[in-house]
Amino acid sequence: MxxxxxxxxxxPCRRDICGAEYTSGPGPTTGSLCDxxxxxxxxVRSAACGLPGQPRVINLEPQTxxxxxxxxxxxxxxxxxxxxxxxxxKALQARIEIVAxxxxxxxxxxxxxxxxWIDPPFSCGHWSPQLVRLAGGEEQxxxxxxxxRTLKWSEVVASQPEVLFIACCxxxxxxxxxxxxxxxxKPDWNNLPCxxxxxxxxxxxxxxxSRPGPRLVDSLEMLAHALHPDVHPLPSGLPEPVQIDLAxxxx
Length: 251
Fold this sequence. Notes:
Elements: E1 14-15, E2 21-22, H1 41-48, H2 65-78, H3 82-104, E3 111-117, E4 122-123, H4 128-135, E5 138-139, H5 153-159, E6 163-166, H6 173-184, H7 193-196, E7 200-202, H8 205-209, H9 215-227, E8 242-243
Parallel strand pairs: 3-5, 3-6, 6-7
Antiparallel strand pairs: 1-2, 3-4, 7-8
Helix pairs in contact: 2-3, 3-9, 4-9
């Protein structure tokens, strides 16, 4: 696709509590996970050439939740805070293991589809299928550690999801709800098991699911609670996925 739709703004360097120099500004960390919404690595390197001190640029490309946790340690090493990074990574991993252990005792796992876009529909990818599995579901269309892909609507129908999550990349809940009538108008929408049982959820993709950082553990806990509320309590401070009142949505 050529160039990212993001841009890089440089700011004067300052020092953090570990004594490392860094720059701050709007936009996500550089990465090659997505050609559309990630800042392109070459653009960041070009901008860094104009900063004092020849700052080191680290490109993070985690594909799974395990690699996301490891990237915390990479950043810690880069800024001289390995001990702090280890502590953060271990705490995140402990939360993941708590969810995984609870899910391991489940006898039923619902068929799940997590969509990262509505028009056209995109499967989930990278870490999201893994989150669904750890939360106690069976993702039907996304593959762990692989990119999301454009779907034919017939693929969604054929998967017969018992639970549907919509986590549009870069969208908050309000913006995602604006596009929900597009799904409602699709053929066989009303025949999907998730629609018939009322288990269609919208989550804040921009805030939680889209970015490869510590909030993915929050995302895991939110998914787990929505899938199995009697098994996975929602931690204090986390929002519940919004269960959609489908009768109120007009195509």
